[in-house]
Amino acid sequence: MITLYTFGPAFGLPDASPFVTKAEMLLKLAGLPYHARRGSLRRAPKGKLPYLDDMGRIVADSTMIRWHIEKTYHIDFDDGLGPAERGIAWAAEKLMEDHLYWAVARVRWLDQANFDKGPAQFFRSVPAPVRGLAERLVRYKVRKTLWGQGLGRHSEEELVALATKGVTSIADILGDKRYLMGDKPCGADATLFAFAGSLLCPVFDTPIRTAAEGHANLVAYMARMRAEFYPELAAAPVPQGVAA
C-alpha cells in the first residue's frame, strides 16, 4: 500500500498545500490504492510535503511522485497527447507551480487579514508565549524567499497584473474543454485542480481570486472536478477561515 504524507484538509480544500493535492490527484488518476497520513516537515526527506512511501521506497516532491508512478506502474498520464500538446500541458503546469503559487503565497502570508484567516491556523500548536515570535520568523522567511524568487520585488499592483495574466492564460488553454487538454484528464489536470482550488478558495479575499472568478470555465471546471474526485468536499460547506 502506498502512503502519502500530507498536511491535511484546510479551508474547504483537500489539503492546505496544492502540491499535496496534486500528488493525491495523480494517485486518483492512476487508480492506485493509497493511504493519506499527516506528515512532518522535520521527517520529510526534502523538508517539504508531500512525499510518499511506496512499500519502503520514499519519493519526495510532487513531480518526482508523478515520475515514480509513471515509471513504476507503467502509466502515461498524457496518453493520447501529441508532442505539442504535451509541451503545452507541461508549460501550464509549471506556470501554476512556479509563478501563480508564489503570487498566492504572498497575498496569504504577507497580507495581515489573509494571514489571520489562513496561515495563522498552522501555529495553533505553538505555545502561546512564543507563538508570535514563531509567526514573525516564518513570515520573514516567506518574505525573503519571495524576494529571492522575484515576485516579492514587485509592487502589489504589478503582482496582481502578473498573476491575472497567468490566470487568464490557464483559462484560455482550458477553453470549453472538459479537462485541460481534451475529453479526458492528463497529468496537468492534477495540478490545475489543485491550484485552481487554491486560487478560488473563498476563505481569502484577494484580487487574484477575483480574477479567477471572472473565468466561468475555471469555476465550472472546479465544480466538475470536485464532484468527480472529491464528492465529499463538493457536498460540504466551505469553512470560513478555520483549518480542518
UniProtKB/TrEMBL annotation:
Location of the Metaxin glutathione S-transferase domain: 167-225
Residues annotated as domain Thioredoxin-like fold: 18-114
CDD domains from the UniProt entry: GST_C_Metaxin, GST_N_Metaxin_like
Source organism: Cupriavidus taiwanensis (strain DSM 17343 / BCRC 17206 / CCUG 44338 / CIP 107171 / LMG 19424 / R1)
Family matches, as InterPro entries: FAX/IsoI-like, Glutathione-S-Trfase_C_sf, Glutathione_S-Trfase, Metaxin_GST, Mito_Protein_Transport_Metaxin, Thioredoxin-like_fold, Thioredoxin-like_sf
Protein name as annotated: Glutathione S-transferase
One Pfam family here: GST_N_4
